[in-house]
Structures are given as C-alpha cells and as structure tokens.
C-alpha cells in the first residue's frame, strides 16, 4: 500500500499518478455526494466564465477574493461582466464549453445503471444557473442523475445573472460552522439536512476537491468513503488537519474517479 501522504499530494506529474483502486465492500443502499467544480466538472464555473469572457475580471477575481465574501464577490463580478456587454447567450455558451470529462459522466451513469440502490446528491458552492446549464449539456438530466441539487440561488434578470447566497446575509438563522465554511453555506450542515430528509443509507461516498469539502467529510463515519482529488485544498486539509473517520481514496484525473466509482457497483 502506498502511504497516505504520497497518495494525497506528492504526485507533481499528474499524467501517471499512483493508482488507488483497491476494492471496496458492497453496500445495498448508498448515497454518492458530489461537489461540482473540479469534482463532477473538470473546471471551476465561477472562474471559467471570466476566463472565457473577460480576462480582466478573472484577474479582478484574484484581487477581490481576500477582501469579500465569495458568493457576494461572484455576484459583483457578474454585474461587472454584464456592464462589459456580455449577454446571457455569451455566458451560457461559455458554460456549455466548460470541460466535463466523459469518463466522469460514464462513471456515474454506469454506477446508476449497475447499482439501483445508489442515489446521487449534488452539493455545490456554484449556483443554480451554472449547474442547470451544464448538466443538460452533458446529458446528466435525461433521465435525472441527482435526487437533489443544493447550491446558491441564481436567476436571469434580462441579460444579467443575479446570484445570491444559499443563506441570505439577513436570514435569522446563520450557520455556526467553525471548520471554515463561508457565510453563504455550510456543506456539512447541508449534508446533515439532506440525510434528515431521506431514509438512511448503508454508506455515504463523498466526491470532492476543495477546502470547503473538508467540513462535510468530517461528518462521515468509518463505513463511509471520500474520493478526494489530489493536489487541491481538500487533500491538503486532510493531510494537515486530520480528524477524518471515513476511508479516503485519491484520484487526479476523472478517468481515475471513474474507476473508483466502479468499485461501488
Ligand atoms: Mg470543488
Ligand atoms: Zn461547515
């Protein structure tokens, strides 16, 4: 067995990483929770739209990020994008060109087909419009893959995309997470709330990459599994902060995640 630190972060050249494909036990009823940006999708929606349409705003993104709440900043940059004259069609076109790896799509659809006791839940800090535009463009809505999608609300106001926080800044109940979730949403709380809305599962599998996926992974138990993307915020937090009870399996490319999903069938 390769040690955890090597599996987490030491692969600088990512083309041929250490493989982590040891079998997993079978579970009759399982929930697969997916993060969206850099997990189900092979890019980050909030950054990608500016990379495609306005490099100036992509640089502005980096400048503002330390100063503003993340969702508020993304909403502000969308207003700037609108001021620059970019239309709804421009934004939707950029989203439809965003990379989603065919291996990931194949992996989730194969698992859904082979194991009917599997449910999928999308838990993302992106937004309703980005996800609602991309999922159908890669064939993941017909038939639906996800039982539920929890993300930030967004809607079109003419040509302007208006984005707001999942938990509004003036809402009476703010989350009290101390693990570092941004004010708009605690992914751990959202996972717990989903579990309360549904029957229990024999195990939960969480597919994620970002620092904000650390909170929900801390809420998983010893029967659960995290499929963690290497060399990103989540792998670093697991290595630095520990405290994870679930099994952790690592992947770099979606073609590896496809193999890991295959272990659940
Ligand atoms: Mg992510
Ligand atoms: Zn949290």
From TrEMBL:
EC top class, as a word: hydrolase
Residues of the active site: 35 (nucleophile), 37 (proton donor)
Keywords: Hydrolase, Magnesium, Metal-binding
Keyword hit for Lipid biosynthesis: no
This protein's record includes keyword Metal-binding: yes
E.C. number(s) listed in UniProt: 3.1.3.74
InterPro entries linked to this entry: HAD-like_sf, HAD_hydro_PyrdxlP_Pase-like, HAD_sf, Pase_PHOSPHO-typ
Binding positions for Mg(2+) per the UniProt entry: 35, 37, 209
Cofactors demanded by this protein: Mg(2+)
GO molecular function list: metal ion binding; pyridoxal phosphatase activity
Classification via PANTHER family: LP01149P, PHOSPHATASE, ORPHAN 1, 2
Name recorded for this polypeptide: Pyridoxal phosphatase
Species in which this protein is naturally found: Malassezia cuniculi
């Amino acid at each position: 067995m390769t040690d955890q630190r090597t599996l987490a972060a030491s692969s600088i050249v990512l083309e041929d990483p250490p493989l982590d494909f040891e079998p997993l036990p079978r579970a009759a009823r399982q929930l697969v929770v997916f993060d969206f940006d850099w997990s189900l999708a092979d890019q980050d929606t909030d950054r990608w739209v500016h990379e495609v349409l306005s490099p100036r705003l992509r640089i502005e993104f980096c400048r503002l990020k330390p100063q503003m709440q993340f969702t508020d900043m993304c909403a502000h940059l969308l207003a700037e994008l609108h001021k620059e004259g970019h239309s709804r069609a421009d934004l939707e076109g950029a989203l439809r060109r965003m990379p989603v790896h065919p291996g990931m799509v194949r992996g989730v659809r194969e698992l859904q087909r082979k194991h009917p006791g599997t449910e999928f839940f999308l838990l993302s800090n992106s937004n309703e419009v980005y996800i609602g535009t991309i999922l159908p463009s890669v064939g993941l809505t017909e038939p639906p893959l996800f039982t539920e999608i929890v993300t930030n609300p967004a809607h079109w106001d003419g040509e302007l995309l208006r984005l707001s926080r999942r938990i509004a800044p003036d809402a009476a109940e703010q989350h009290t997470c101390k693990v570092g979730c941004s004010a708009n949403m605690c992914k751990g709380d959202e996972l717990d709330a989903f579990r309360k809305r549904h029957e229990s599962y024999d195990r939960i599998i969480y597919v994620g990459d970002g620092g904000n996926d650390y909170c929900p992974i801390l809420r998983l138990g010893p029967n659960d599994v995290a499929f963690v993307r290497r060399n990103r915020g989540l792998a670093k937090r697991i290595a630095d902060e520990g405290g994870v009870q679930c099994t952790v399996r690592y992947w770099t490319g979606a073609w590896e995640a496809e193999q890991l999903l295959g272990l659940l069938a």
